[in-house]
Amino acid sequence: MSEHPELVAEQAYIDHAYACLDAARSRATKLRSMVEVGRGGTTQARYERDVIEEQIHTRLSQLELGSASLVFGRVDTVDEEVFHIGRLAVADEHQEPVVVDWRAPVAEPFYRATGREAMGLILRRHFVTRGRQLLDMEDELFDLDRLDDTYQGHGALVAALEQNRSGQLRDIVATIQGEQDKIIRDELKGTVIVQGGPGTGKTVVALHRAAYLLYTHRFPLEGQGVLVLGPNRLFLRYIERVLPSLGEAGVHLSVLADLIADLFPDTRVRLSDAPEQARIKGDLAMIEVVRRAVRDRQRRLRESVVVPFGVVRLRLSIADSAQIVSEARRRFRNHNRARTFVENEVFRRLADSHRSKPDPEVVRSRLFRDRDVKEALEWIWPVLTPHQLLRDLFGSKALLRSALAAGFPQFDEIELDSTVAELHRERGDSLTDYVWADADVAVLDEAHSRLGTLPANKDEEEVRTYGHIVIDEAQDHSPMALRMVARRSLNGSFTIVGDIAQATAPGASSSWGEVLDLLPTGRLEPRIRDLTLSYRIPAPNLRLALKVLAVAAPDLSPPTAVREKGAEPTIERVDPHRLLDGAIAAALDELSVLDGGSVAIIAPDSLIDELDRRLAASGVEYGRATNASRNVTGSLHPELALVPVTLVKGLELDGSVVVEPGRIVAEQPQGLRALYVALTRSTKRLAVVHSEELPEPLGGLVEPASDPSGPLTLF
Q: For the chain, percent helix, then strand, then coil, each to nearest 5?
């Protein structure tokens, strides 16, 4: 291929842009010396210094690109204007624009222009770069009126797709396609649903949308905050570099457990519920379960309380306590906020119980620490944290039975008994040692909403709300989880991302309507945007996966592969005793073929520990993907990763080895959909290794081999 005639000139322009960027960094750094405050500085001066220092730090973060390329394109307009498009805006020493931020309105035609709708362009140029070096260019001329409206910048797009993965998601700012750009630039108000199959880029579109909204609506979003909610911590570590590479480091990346930990930092979420437990805890019936659990702790006395008060005795009767409970329930929505009222009523009733009618405040001051009075108050109306309430609930079969009977009135005695047994767990020695499961998080949040903050506890945080919330893999959030997220929304502005075909969690949504019913979408009609082109997955791999989709979700429209060419997937049957070694051997073969790419061994949870031991014993360098705590750093291993099928959703790799599909289907609540997810992670090569019979959608693709331990040939 001959060299583009303007390659040298464009390289010189890129060098100039980087020089201007370096100068901007230098100016921002020099500002620090201008705001130094000596030992005798005033409080106001120190405050101003801290504010300016924070602004300088933010600016330097915005100017930090790492290894990402600054400039990736250019547009020439009919008005004879030329704009170079890049990750962030750069100006020269005269404040003349050198690079236009990709989010600016003038950059929109770079992503949206087509042969039928040129949007004022006569040329669009895509750069293929590596860091500061320009490798190649691709031009599209808009005066020919013969451009493909489906996707643009084919050469740059394919070059980006063919790059090896590193274990971290990369931005697509240089190759955003028209259908993706429409979603990114959609208005802030209301709810946008992004429905897209595997490889359509829905996650990166959502992240670019977050960056675009912050750029376009800096005020008020910078103060209100933008939340990106991921399905697990592995996923968060996988996407964590995208927004900083786009100049936005202030977006909050969280999982559900982080939202409750923001309120209660000592919450330890380390357990995984069994599918049936997760389904029950995610059901909206848990609203009534929590309400009844709280109500069961609002109790009249079992016997009257009589306490000495000087030479007389004061009395709180069972009837008095019942009246106090009834009145407190009527007046207060939040349990803990009623505690002061209950205390006042208890001491008033004690005072009124004697004909001398002592002052209730005097009674309070003298009897507040009386053991019988304290026990009576704790019995009638205890102050509770969500953790205390649920630990007591799950630790008592009687309390569980009462609460579950209220929440699930359709249960007969057998179902009720089995559910009580399913959810019951020992209270343990102390609350601080108690460990929670993922499905408990939304129930804890519901309990916090019902209980309210502790009386006179000024340190307890209120629920943090956000001006915009991005929910990735939203189809897998339970109804209770979506209700929890709804409490974090300031104004009903959401970007909801997912694929109904990949709904694999217990109680997962079967339609976007079910998701929308649980979110505060406001008066605006939700906008549903479909991503139909699978950029990541080559056609041979996608055809195999669609065999599974046709059975798992026959009513859903499949995505279309952009890349028709690619290596055919392989299916190999091995002897059961050689399954794990065969999977490792297949992964090493894929690594050698890819020459520097990333490969994942995707296996059912039941095989992960033994695969981990085999890999460790083999001496192969690899990483095991885990859903570690929020304080653990790291990401997928850049070459070989061992990934449970329950954590693989949303990830992309150069190659993948899917182990024992039949067991994946058998172990997962929605097994065929889980298998569909596993088969759609690879951008290049896919291998399947099995010893058991293949699931029906795959079984018809192969003929039995004469040697059952030998390889089978696809098609």
A: 45, 15, 40
